Amino acid sequence: MLNLQLRDEFKGGRLKGTTIDFSADETTGALNKPAAEFLGITYPSVDMLKVLEEAQPGKGHPIVLLGGRGLGKSHLMAALFHAMKDAPAATAWLADWSINLQRPEIAAFKFRTNCLVIAESLQRQRYKALWDILFDQHPHGNYIKGKWEGMGAKKPDVPSDLLLLEMFKAQPTALLLDEFQTWYDGLRNTPQYPWRNWAFNFIQLLSEIANDHPELLSLVVSIRDNQSEACQQIHRINPVVVDFQGKQAKKDRQRLLLYRVFQNRTNVPPAEIESLIKAHVTEHLRLAEIAPAQHNTRVTDFVEAWPYSPVLMGLLEDQVLVATQAQETRDLIRILVDLFKTRGEQSPVITAADFDITAEKGCIASLLSSVANPLHRTLLQKAQRNLEAVQTAVKEPVKNVPHAAEIISALWLRSLSVEKINGGVPAELQVDITRALPVDDNAFAAEMALIRENSFNIHPVGNRLVFKEEENAEGKLLANAKNDRLFDKSGEHDGQDIEQLAAEIRYVLAGTEEISRQFRVVVLRKNWRSDPWNDLPERDRPDQWGNQLVLIALPEYPENVEAILGAWLKQHMAQRRNTLRFLLPRKTEVNIYFDPDLIICARAVYLAGQWKQTDEAYKPLFQTYQNSHLRPKLRDKFDVFALLDIWNFAQPGQCKFIIEKHSATGDKIPKAVQTKIENEIFAPEDFEAMAVAQAKSSASLAKFIGELQEPAIGGNHCIPWLGEVTAKERVLKLCAAGKLAINVRGLELLQAAPGETEEACWIRIKGKLGSGKELEQTILQPPGAVPQSGGTLPLPLGPITAPPVTPAPGTAPGTPPSIFGGGNTPPTGPHFKPLATPPKTPVNLLGEVEKWGITPATNLSNINVNVANMTGAQLSHLLKSLPDGISYALNLDKEAQ
Amino acid sequence: MTSGRDSTSDALLTAAPEEAWQAVFEKLWSVFSAPLSLPHVEREISERERALSELELVLSGSAWELWQAFESSVPRTAEAVVSFWDTAPSGKAVLILDGLSLRELPWLLQQAKERGYAVHEAGVRGAELPSDTTPFARALGFSQRSALDNNGAGSAHRLPGARTESLNVPWEDCLDWIGSAPAIVLWHHWPDERVHQLAEPGDGFQKLCREAAEKLTSASFWKMIERMSTGRRLVITGDHGYAASGTFSDVGKEQAGWLKTKFGGSRFSCGPGATHHWVPPISLSLTTAHGTNQFALGRRKWRSAGGYPTLAHGGLSLLEVAVPFMEISNPH
Fold it and tell me: Alpha carbon A678 to chain centroid distance?
């Protein structure tokens, strides 16, 4: 774009390291390069200029470069080295930049000319002690070393300040110590050889000399942080600290980076950039809701950061590289170079969406090589898998989710941050994918929705979306649920969604045990019209229905419902055609098995049910989708039922059905239907007529029930089937009402007895009918007269005192008395002797009784006390004195008034 | 139940016993001689049984005295057989189907007619009381049914010159026995054996109805009849009938207890038995040619140990004591 060119060193296929090798050993070392060449790739950042300024002759502070790895400390130190060694080159370089940066004052910087520059990268561990560097590299080093070592017993552990001053006076020196902290922290400190204490002491000496005698010693040290002792010691003498954290530092580093990466970035006219990235910037301003007052500033930001989006730069610097513990600028350069190499030509502005997760090489590889965190490495794999899932699940992915790769890439990059708020809001992602043309908001929203539904590591956090390593269980569940291919014929879960949905419908309609004992809900599948039974489990097929009342739930409300159901009954029900109740879904709704909402819910329930066995996370989802999503939707799906009314075998299309609302939901439906049929549709008189007719032909109860289960023929109205239990109960009620009699297997004849109330008979006979085979042996018959006999049990026999009675001729013993006055013998029993007396006074009667030998224990029978005349008062007196517990007969003639 | 009452029932109450029983037997003939149709045999037989219920009710609830005169008033099967034996020409045969009741009569009549037999006499005869196998055997002069086995009855019986046999084998297997003796008596154990086998609770009665229809219309049965009637006059009759006691009404608890004690699962008990005080009586003690015995009266049943048999005989109900009697010859 706009003929932007990478620097030559980055153009190769394999990117060289961007580390500045702070050494002079090899030809590639930064210190060995010609000053002009090295300075040519150096951008005079604020920090650089500050160091150069402080290193001018006459400035008297040690300089500390404080910053983490890869910020450019070594580069800066190398540039200083060259500036001190080759002042003319440095002056020319600054003069050039003073124009570019519009800072004329930097052209006036002076550089030391007579000083010895000693630069050492301490992490190379070439010297045991700091003074060894000076003794080794300074022209007077050996002399001073000899002097120090020759002090004999007076020799201090650390060369004294006087010795050092003497050395520097002989030759003023600039001492550049890179990686000081690394070296210092690695020093051993034993009581015998306290190397660290010595180093501590020596650096203090050097700092003081640099401070007090700036013309003799210029000390520049780089450290990573200000926590170490080394740093604290240098800090004691108030050094100039260059910490790369200045106000302009960020922007400055951006420029430095762009300058470092591109050879002609400064030559690209801003106006062209602005026009190139106009669409992107406009969308950014709109979607990020930037206040109009800040528009110009933001546009400038974009132009300055080009070819990268400032948003991306911020993201990489502030979040990604921090999170991944990369070596800041150094790695950033690698990433930016790779990004530009792979995407520079396609994207007018390079955004997070250009981190193409599908490409194995390129920017992703650079980034991953910088990433120290295994978590983030696996996150990439997850992102790739998610993208794959989206593209598999969505039909026509090229058309429906054209930006899937870019969006997931952008989201993945944005999710690498360790900060609490990571990820991105959809608007940010929309900006990320906006190139030369704006993306339509609605199209983006739709695409985003598809991606979210079909990927399972995208977690919503507030209004942000975050890519996380842990799977978004719900996301994964839905992603799988929406994947039609998983559930089609070639899929892993072929047809299980239909089965699950049918099972849920069955549960919703007849879930509880109480309901399912009485009713059997059979939910027909997709091809219910042509082949209703093959798809059903064995237990739901007609031969397994048993005595439950069967409700057939249809997946759709067919047009011309009566004709369809009539034909269906004829074709698929060989018998018991009158027993079915059809539950129909709402007329206006689509076939249940084609309702995407229901199907997806059913799939989610099915999958969660499978997965929860191995992953606890799916347990709550299983319950949520089953109890809160799917079942409530099904509860009121079926609002009407149909019942066969008039059967027409020859022309099933002419069948008539009663179609009624039942006004119930869920598992209340079966009972509501039953109640409605029983109370409003069932005609007891029809039932009675049929039962009586069956009784007349001595039909078995099984036959009667069998006939009730079949539709009435000859265009008659069918008697609604209420179930075997109710049918038997109603037959018994008819029996109690005296309409018919029932011979129960020859064991008992159930029939209302003469004078017996219906209620009493019902209580006597209820529950006496069996079931199954016994019904075949239970015969209905018309009620008839039955022999009845009155009387009592034979009296208990007493001791036989009399000889056996000889039977009268023509009669046999045991023959009961003839009501026709035949010569029957009286029943045999205890022998009684008749005793009598003429009328006497009560006292005399007592005397007679005594004479007859009647004691209080004597049994008497047939006692008659005859009174000729008495008054009512005397009768009352007599009755009152009679003993209780015995019944008396009273015969008298009352005088007419 | 009172409307549509058969006025002949009223007449029974005042008629002389002989006339009364004649009227009863005429009624039985009119009800049971009508043809039956095979597909609805159980239903039709049940209807015929119901048609008798009023008469039964009269005989057990009002005119139970008539039972005292049964033996002396009705033409008895044993006498009819003996009479036939005595008067018939030299070729004669008697087929006694043990337990054959009037229910089975129509099949014999229909088939005989269809198969071209000449029916010389057909009517209702009375069984011995108790209506059981042995009393009938005794009435014919045999000690018991098994005395006929293998022509072992000797000569001291009332069917002189008869070659006798008592068999419980399929009809086809009877053919070999028939042979060419001019005077034969075959006492076949069907359907009595099946009556007792099917007396369990259930649909034994219906099964028996169907089975009887099948057996009596079968080619093998009529092959046997043909063989027996070849050159012989043939009487087909039964020693006693049987009651579809499973269809009888249940008596009250006290009566059931009493009946259970006296009769158990049977319809009669030997000996005079005990008295009771129920009126109309639930049992009768009758003195007949076979001694004084007590009989369950009418269409009653009671629960007894093991369940009351749903098919039984020996008591006082019409289909137990009335049996078909027909005399046929084979014109070919």
Answer: 44
pLDDT tens column, A313-326: 877 776 665 544 44
DSSP, collapsed to helix, strand or coil, labels residue A823 as coil
Residue A221, strand partner residues: A64, A177
- How far from B244 is each of A441, A783, B206, B247, CA to CA, in Å? 91, 16, 10, 6
Contact B54 A818 (CB under 8 A): no
Test B278 with A789 for CB contact under 8 angstroms: yes
Count H helices, E strands: chain A? 40, 15
What pLDDT, in 10s, does the model give residues A775-798?
A: 988 999 999 888 888 877 655 544
Q: Do A776 and B46 touch (CB under 8 A)?
A: no
CB atoms inside a 10 Å sphere around CB A211: 17
- Residue A866's Cβ-count burial label (10 Å; 0-12, 13-18, 19+) is exposed
Place of tokens 């419980």: B168
Distance (Å) of CA A258 to CA A15, A50, A266, B161: 16, 20, 9, 143
Which of B46, B277, B292 is facing A794, going by the closest CB pair?
Answer: B277
Phi, psi dihedrals of residue A749, rounded to the nearest 5°: -105, 110
Task: Tell if the CB–CB gap between B254 and A785 is shorter than 8 Å.
Answer: no
Strand B268-270 to B291-296 pairing: antiparallel
Dist CA A797 CA A829 (whole Å): 6
**φ and ψ of A575, to 5 deg:** -145, 175
User: 3-class DSSP state for residue B212?
Assistant: helix
pLDDT reported for residue B19: 93
Q: Mind telling me how many Å the CA of B181 is from chain A's nearest CA? A: 44
Report residue B268: phi and psi, to 5°: -150, 160
State the residue for tokens 């056996």. A804
How much is the CA Rg of chain A, to the nearest whole Å?
56
Which string of DSSP letters, residue by residue, matches A421-440? S-SB-HHHHHHHH--SSPPP
Interface test with chain B among A800, A815, A818, by most B beta carbons within 10 Å: A815
Distances (CA, A) of A216 to A64, A136, A201, A701: 18, 18, 19, 127
Please give the ipTM for the structure prediction: 0.89
Mean pLDDT for each 10-residue chunk of chain A (897 residues)?
79 62 62 79 80 79 76 78 84 83 80 82 81 87 88 84 88 86 81 84 85 85 76 75 71 78 83 87 88 87 86 74 54 79 82 80 61 69 83 81 86 76 84 87 88 82 82 80 84 88 90 75 91 89 87 92 93 92 90 90 92 88 90 91 93 93 90 92 93 91 92 92 91 94 90 90 90 89 85 56 43 47 48 79 85 83 83 88 82 80
Contact (CB<8Å) B299/A786 = yes
- Do residue A749 and residue B273 have CB atoms under 8 angstroms apart? no
Please report where in the chains the tokens 């199907």 appear, as a residue.
A599
Question: Any residues with CB less than 8 A from the CB of A401 and at least 6 apart, and which?
Answer: A390, A391, A394, A447, A450, A451
Distance between alpha carbon A277 and the CA centroid of its chain, in Å?
41
CA distance A579 to A705: 11
**B216 CA to chain A: closest CA distance, Å?**
23
- Which tokens belong to A851? 């004479």
pLDDT in tens, A559-595: 999 999 999 999 999 989 999 999 999 888 889 999 9
Beta-carbon-side half-sphere exposure of residue A619 (alpha carbons within 13 Å): 5
